[in-house]
Amino acid sequence: MASGLFITFEGPDGAGKTTQLRRLASFLAPRLKRPVITTREPGGTRIGDAIRAILLDPAHVELCREAEVLLYAASRAQHVAERIRPALAAGAVVLCDRYVDASLAYQAAGLGVDPAVVAAINRFATGGLLPHRTYLLDIDPAEGLRRVRARRGQGADRIEQKALAYHQRVREAFLRLAANDPQRIRVLDASRPEEEIAREIAADCWALCRRLQLETGGSKDEAGCGGGPGQG
Ligand SMILES: Nc1ncnc2c1ncn2[C@@H]1O[C@H](COP(=O)(O)OP(=O)(O)OP(=O)(O)O)[C@@H](O)[C@H]1O
Ligand SMILES: Cc1cn([C@H]2C[C@H](O)[C@@H](COP(=O)(O)O)O2)c(=O)[nH]c1=O
């Protein structure tokens, strides 16, 4: 099926996902004979960006958790159909800021929605498309939120406003997901200097590209990693 490479970045708010995603894109783009696309969730499409505005608006205090799960999944469905699958089919490297793991951490563990329900809705939304590799930037949520506040210098969004205990549940859920899928999810201590983390991610990702022969323009089909992203 797809001949591209699908990589996601996850972690608590302010862990440094966007910073590391951009650094990896800058590392890969000049070295690979294929497009490197950066995108994010919720969002990544016109419809997804409209959904993002609904989800993150701090005024939307009445949003019920069922609607929240479905809105994140709706944004993802559009994103997968409109951008991610076509890019992978064309052989691109897709670097995505958050994906299904975020819904399992924030909506299932954070809000207490049945994880089996969140997983089923997301299988429907994505057609079971999973990343080849996920970089989990792990950080104490208090430190992550401090970074976000320092970066933004303005009010928090609807999710960032939630209690620290909620963000702690999210962090713990991410670590459990990584423990259950160590082949795909690589945990990085995000409290370290930006450059050190970037070097580790680049080395791991380059090894993956070489294994899949992406650096020579080819694309090797490997079980669960290469011929197409894993199908959950
Ligand atoms: N390793 C690091 N050490 C210290 N500060 C960092 C590090 N990485 C990123 N930052 C800074 O922390 C802030 C948040 O970084 P970034 O936007 O990359 O995080 P994020 O995880 O994408 O945030 P969000 O969850 O809001 O999307 C930025 O000001 C960034 O410069
Ligand atoms: C994809 C996804 C995201 N979230 C949360 C996580 C963040 O608080 C926001 C997105 O903002 P960011 O600055 O772009 O990280 O949404 C979520 O709760 N569930 C999800 O599936």
The gross shape turns out to be globular
What do the pLDDT scores average to?
A: 93
What is the level 1 CATH name? Answer: Alpha Beta
Any guess at the CATH architecture?
A: 3-Layer(aba) Sandwich
Rg on CA atoms, Å: 17 Å
Question: How many angstroms does the end-to-end distance come to?
Answer: 15 Å
| CATH topology term | Rossmann fold
CATH superfamily: P-loop containing nucleotide triphosphate hydrolases
> How many E strands?
5
What is the count of structural domains?
A: 1
Figure out the total of helices. 8
Order of helical and strand elements = EHEHHEHHEHHEH
Largest sheet: 5 strands, parallel
* Low-pLDDT residue spans: 223-232
Bound molecules: adenosine-5'-triphosphate, the ligand Cc1cn([C@H]2C[C@H](O)[C@@H](COP(=O)(O)O)O2)c(=O)[nH]c1=O
Structural class: alpha/beta
Strand-residue fraction?
5-15%
GO cellular component, one term: cytosol
Catalytic activity: dTMP + ATP = dTDP + ADP
EC number: 2.7.4.9
InterPro entries: P-loop_NTPase (IPR027417), Thymidylate_kin-like_dom (IPR039430), Thymidylate_kinase (IPR018094)
